[in-house]
Design brief:
By secondary structure, the protein is an alpha+beta fold. It folds into two domains: 106 residues, Gyrase A, domain 2; 115 residues, Beta Complex (RNA Polymerase Alpha Subunit, Chain A, domain 2). Helices cover 22% and strands 36% of the residues. It binds zinc ion.
Amino acid sequence: MEVELLERRDNELRFIIRRVSTAFVNSLRRAAIAEVPTMAIEDVVILTNSTVLFDEIIAHRLGLIPLTTPKEGYVMPKDCVCRGSGCSKCQVRLYLDVKAEYPMVIYAESLLSDDPNVRPVYGKIPIVELEEGQSLVLEAYAQLGLGKEHAKWQPVSACAYKYYPRIDVRSDLCDGCGKCVEACAKSVLKLNDKVKVADILKCTLCGDCVETCPKGAIEVNKVDDSFIFYLETTGTMTPEDVIIKAADVLIDKAKRFVRALEEAA
Ligand SMILES: [Zn+2]
């Protein structure tokens, strides 16, 4: 297996992964989306709410605010010594106490946390708008969870892969008419006397160039064991951490499978 980094920017990561099967790369994608433990608000105790929104709507909005997930220090409630009833190892308290003296918007940054490592990723997510005299007082409890249970525990906002493309231009057939260069919506090809590949990574394997070429000089194929993997996180953790934890999930599953097999034998 070979990994080549293409791009790393803010919460985004793009890399090439070679000499793996489609099943493997798809497992990695699914684990990243659905099985990497991520922090999100699960329980909310509303003490005062004189805003225009119902308690349930506010609780739902709080659940969808991405929180930073520390690398270590917390366990899933079901694996905790407290057996999920809630303790400092499996949950974090956040609180909000606002009384509006003038019309205002409450943003995520007003949510204060008992643990500075678990806080809203983006401060400017609006929670609710208050009129003068209205107030909102609540306690919220965040815990680790999995994306397969609820999308609020999904660490990635985008996670996908595509086959690595391969474009062959037969120079004995190509007469340099340039029709394929015009047909390509992604500017993958360029004309340099004969048609050449300008940027292979942009190719989506749509095949427009193949259909347009009057001479049949172009062939577009996928490379069976190479993929371009892209992911963007919600900011809850770095994309590298998501991929590493997704790989850990797969390793753990393989180990459990082997153990079960040994026990059955
Ligand atoms: Zn606990």
